Amino acid sequence: MDKHARKMLVIITEALLEKRLVADSLRLGAQGYTVHDVRGGSRLGTREALWEADRSIEVKVICTAEVADDIARHVMTQYAPHHSLTVFFSDVEVLRPGKY
């Protein structure tokens, strides 16, 4: 099977950023994305999604390493100073590289 290396960028953040993150990701070269509603917590607190302003999302983008770096850099510069977020990368392999 012919596999192709890509990066998966995962951003977990406040739901109010969804539209901006999607637009930014597409503008910076992503070909697509997936968004999930999520709940979680850390030593700093818990997001239980009991009310609209407490909702969290997980945005996943599979793309080239360069595009993942560009999106992550933008997110950390524009959103990290003012919003709760977690950003991480994973190595993935895809079967249809033209999609990513």
Please provide a written account of the structure.
The chain is an alpha+beta fold and 100 residues long. It has one domain (4-94): Alpha-Beta Plaits. Helices cover 24% and strands 40% of the residues. It is built from two helices and six strands, in the order βαββββαβ. The protein has helices at 18-27, 65-78; strands spanning 4-14, 34-38, 40-42, 45-47, 56-63, 85-94. Strands 2-5-1-6 form a four-stranded antiparallel beta sheet, with helices on one face. The chain has a two-stranded antiparallel ribbon with strand order 3-4. β3 and β4 form a beta hairpin. It is globular. The mean pLDDT is 91.
Summarize the topology.
Elements lengths: L3 E11 L3 H10 L6 E5 L1 E3 L2 E3 L8 E8 L1 H14 L6 E10 L6
Antiparallel strand pairs: 1-5, 1-6, 2-5, 3-4
